[in-house]
Write a structure and sequence with these properties.
Dna Ligase, domain 1; 37% helix; alpha+beta; 3 domains; 26% strand; 6-stranded antiparallel sheet; 4-stranded antiparallel sheet; D-amino Acid Aminotransferase, Chain A, domain 1; single chain; 395 residues
Length: 395
């Protein structure tokens, strides 16, 4: 879950970091009222969208009066701005953040990210932050310093003091910088974040450090540990987001619609990916990706199965489930039975159950009156469902 800037800054402030004074607005008149109340000499008006190239796309503008703020907000609110990336997509703007403009003597880059190759958190720092840092870093490998971090029972360890010294700040700001680096690492650990970024971190003429912009991305699979962030999850839902995927996520299922004809009911990301690969190798085309999480109940599973059955492209259904200690086969079978009872569609089904309560899962489907072919292994299951899907397509 990637938060909007105003949400990320709210969390930074909770941890004691300084951010610019400002308020969020969701319509033009509210933007005018916010600016009138704040009474800044100049304002930054920032579209709340999750992109790295917001400035270039006209998502950050400036104004010198409340009327100017309202006029600027009118050009953003209710519009869709491009992400500006090579795989650009349009993002709907629901809010603008109205902030004071901070004078900068220097713009720094700081971040703690999860290095997926090593599985470790890494501290990233640079003396030259701001717009275009990703492009500049690609051309200058030494632009960003990397400091490995170690998670301990007491929190997180790393050479925060050394990283702060290398930023080359005035002495009175160096200690503050080290504390900020230590804090964003703490945020990453405590919130299960895969990215905590402040760019730019502004050094003011009075040697204060203020987070002018922030990005915070939390691991979706860890959200159950942070019920206090549920409101943030609702707010980051964009009108451009797929409501089916969002609904599935709330029901403990990772789901994505695809263009093929074979619906997949699978638990576990690794098994789901292996099933997709095998299906494609045998000439099949999946109509969805599905990974049922271990926390899903039978009713959650029923919601996900209904998504698959209600997809008009789905002509056949492959169930490939391996039951474990936390998610038994019969729980998934019960969810399938509930979903099938709610739809009038009758699709050919091939089911392969293995692991905990596999036999009972088959009995559960038969007891629900669901006609299906049993398979002993993945290969035979995939081969058969491809045959059935092709026959349905030709029928």
């Amino acid at each position: 879950m990637q938060l909007h800037e105003f949400q990320a800054k709210e969390l930074l402030e909770r941890y004691g970091l300084r951010i610019p004074r400002g308020r969020i607005a969701g319509d033009i008149e509210q933007a005018r009222r916010v600016a009138s109340r704040l009474k800044f000499p100049r304002y930054a008006v920032k579209a709340q969208m999750r992109t790295t190239e917001r400035l270039a796309e006209g998502g950050v503008r400036f104004a010198a009066s409340a009327d100017g703020v309202a006029a600027t907000a009118a050009t953003m609110l209710g519009t869709s701005l491009s992400s500006g990336s090579h795989n650009a997509h349009q993002e709907f703007v629901r809010w603008v953040l109205i902030e004071e403009i901070i004078a900068c003597a220097l713009q720094l880059y700081t971040a703690v990210v999860l290095d997926t190759a090593s599985g470790r958190l890494v501290l990233l720092t640079s003396r030259t932050g701001g717009t275009g840092i990703e492009t500049r870093a690609a051309n200058e490998p030494d632009l960003i310093k990397k400091t490995p971090l170690t998670i301990t029972q007491d929190g997180v360890d790393g050479d925060f003091d050394g990283a702060a010294i290398e930023l080359g700040l005035p002495e009175q700001a160096t200690g503050n910088a080290a504390n900020i680096l230590r804090t964003i690492a703490q945020i990453a650990v405590e919130l299960d974040a895969v990215q905590v970024e402040i760019n730019p971190l502004a050094l003011t003429p009075s040697n204060e450090l203020i987070a002018l912009d922030a990005k915070l991305k939390i691991d979706d699979h860890a959200m159950f540990r942070h019920p206090g962030l549920a409101a943030f999850r609702e707010a980051v839902t964009n009108e451009e987001d797929d409501p089916h995927e969002l609904g599935a996520d709330r029901h403990q299922i990772n789901y994505a619609a695809l263009d093929g004809s074979i619906g997949l009911i699978v638990n576990g990301a690794g098994l789901a990916l292996a099933t997709l690969d095998m299906l494609i190798d045998f000439g099949g085309e999946p109509s969805n990706f599905m990974d049922i999480r271990t926390t899903a109940t039978s009713l959650d599973i029923a919601f996900g199965v209904e998504l698959v059955l209600n997809n008009p492209n789905t002509k056949a259904l492959l169930v490939n489930v391996h039951g474990g200690g936390m998610q038994r086969c019969d729980t998934i079978a019960e969810g399938i039975a509930i979903a099938v009872s709610r739809t009038s569609r009758a699709l050919p089904v091939v089911a392969r159950f293995a692991g905990n309560n596999a036999d009972f899962a088959s009995v559960r489907l038969k007891g629900a009156g669901i006609g299906f072919e049993e398979a002993d292994d993945m290969m035979s299951a995939v081969r058969r469902i491809v045959e059935l899907a092709k026959a349905e397509t030709l029928a």
